[in-house]
Amino acid sequence: MITDVKEMRDLAASMMGRDFAFDVETSGLRAHQDRTLGLSLSYVDDNDDIVSEYVVFEHTLPSADDDTFGIPHDFIARSDAVAALTPVFAQTEVAMSAHNMAFDLGFLWKMGLDPKGELHDTMIGEFLLNENRESYGLKQTAERVFGARMAVYKNLHHYLNFAKEEFMAVPLEPAAAYAEDDTKYTYLLFERQLPMLDEEGLLTVFERLSMPLCRVIAEMQVKGFALDMAKVAELREEYGAISATHEHAVWSAGMDMIADWQEQGEDIPDTYLKMIDHLVKDGVPVQARVDDNNAPYDVHVRGRAVPVFQKTKRTKPRVPYFNVGSRTQLADLLYGYYGITVPTKVKVKTNKDGTVGVDKDTLKIIKHFMGDKAPKVLDDLLEWRKADKLIGTYLDPFSRMADPDDNYAIRANFNQTIARTGRLSSSSPNLQNVPSRGELGKKVRSLFVARPDHALIVCDYSQLELRLLAHYSQDEALLRAFTENLDLHTMTGARQAGLTYEELAERVANEDPEAKLLRTIGKSANFGLSYGMGAKKYQVYLLVNNGIYFDIEDVQKQIDGFNEAYPRLYAWKQEVFEEVRRKGYVKTIGGRKRRLPEIYSGDIWEARAAERQAVNVKAQGGGADIVGLAMIRIQERVRPYNAYNVVQVHDEIVVESPTEHAETVLQIVKDSMIEVNNLLKCPLAVEGTIGPNWYEAK
DNA sequence: ACATAGCGCGCG
DNA sequence: AAAGCGCGCGCTATGT
Fold this sequence. Notes:
Elements: H1 5-15, E1 20-26, E2 36-44, E3 50-56, E4 58-62, E5 70-74, H2 78-90, E6 95-98, H3 101-111, E7 118-121, H4 122-129, H5 138-146, H6 172-199, H7 203-223, H8 229-263, E8 273-275, H9 276-281, E9 286-290, E10 296-301, E11 304-306, E12 318-320, H10 327-337, H11 360-370, H12 377-401, E13 413-415, E14 425-427, H13 438-445, E15 454-461, H14 464-473, H15 476-483, H16 488-496, H17 501-509, H18 513-528, H19 535-546, H20 552-565, H21 567-583, E16 585-587, E17 593-595, H22 604-638, E18 644-648, E19 652-658, H23 662-675, E20 686-691
Helix pairs in contact: 1-2, 3-7, 4-6, 5-6, 7-22, 8-12, 14-15, 14-21, 14-22, 16-17, 16-18, 16-20, 17-18, 18-19, 19-20, 21-22, 22-23
The protein binds a DNA duplex through α10, α12, β14, α19 and α22.
């Protein structure tokens, strides 16, 4: 390890001109608030030996009188290390590798180091070489590839006066050895991957798309997306009340059921009995009196009289309590107590244990077929779920994760090695599933705001995936719709019904209800049928999304109509099926590989699923390639205006820009998104706007 | 007390 | 018997 400046300078000197791997050890996972404790570096010297050194900035030394205690100690000043390493990282002709580089970049940038060489993220490399693995962690990968058994961090000994998770808490020698192993295996992976990527024809997508995109992602993760916390709190209040109202209605119905069981002399299952003190702890209003033995009686839960159950003297007293969030209890209520019979005309969702689902789609189907006879509690349940989802998945986590020191920014992770199609995924929190549709979408997206003196630029591709399908299939009608900027849903609806586009478009413009229905069907067809949805599922889709019921025969006719509407599209899909059967994989337009070994499965349904995945990845993955290239271009071109990417939602890009440059930046973003299309024989279209928040910029 | 599977639901 | 694809996450039920 390296613990003084002189050694540091010697190391830097000996690294010049050589490929190297790097890895930061930190006090936490967030670059904006946590510290870099040290830097591990590996390279190969003149003797072809791999050299690994841990450069220590900050660590612990054992206490003089008690080696179970560690004393914080400063080693090399970061500024000295950075000064020595700046020329190393500034080299452009050497390869610089790291495992999960976006993470390291955040910390390096904060210290003032920016790797300028040929970047190589070994995690992404491993993903491109096989996107079907379960894990791309360094330890698992090193074990699989080299048979290396790397130390498990959690098992390292640590000083007792530190939290176990802290790297600082691990005594210096084993800590350094651990860090050095990280870059050693990263370097070995880098050496091994390069020729493999080349052999598989993946070098271009790696160097021109994945690695430049890694820098964009690192920046997005550092910057984050600002929130209007006052409005978050407001919305939390509003929906807290809405949630409580509907929850109470469903709860009361459930409690009626339990009371009914009692009257019938039936047992109340244990899962319905809750300990009184647990309810109190959860904030449920409970009134009770206690007798001489301190046993509760005359108990009211939420103002409702309930019996008390106490099996033995040693067990705590329990009361019946209906849990509105429990699927099993809801199924008891709906299919037992209310005796709702499941519609047979359409297929409803069943669970693994054979029970009927209580999901939104099933409830909507029930409502459709029962009409006025449907219990009112269904609406309360649907409304409660909506409000509860909003609070539990979005508002409360946002409040917890917002950074009060930077405009309540949310810093999500964007991962390049999760989605097998090559899309990004987002987590902690997921910013790619923030509500966008309907009234709720408006309210929630309005919470995401531009920082002071900034504006948001929101641009999205219109029908990106279908344009890829048009490109590949060269279907005349599909291409015409996109080159002439026609309404695609009208086009599909017209062709399904055997009408011309012009005829249906005019009737839709004149508010002809029958024509509007045809367009609606066309829209559903575009979303559902492009990737091979079957009749039964499509029937449900039409009913749940549009409230229209068709017999299964009519649904099949619509599917046939869709396939006949775009005959070249249908033919091209068959070609893709053959391609994946022949090669076992397909490639996207950006050169990414999607291996589908299930295509050779003896299970015909599994093989068919692989066929559909092959078609889907050409569109979805190709779209992801294009959006990625656009983001790279955007990052380079808006930086002079101090603008930057803040989020990507698959076909949508959000950029934050100083207000004074917003118009310029909008034009750059739109241009960039269009210009990356030197790959497609189908034009692209981008819609973009400027606004103070995520909704109003849309 | 803790981990995992399954469901349900938000997005493109 | 079975025919959209791709995600992340909160919650309950279940098992250890």
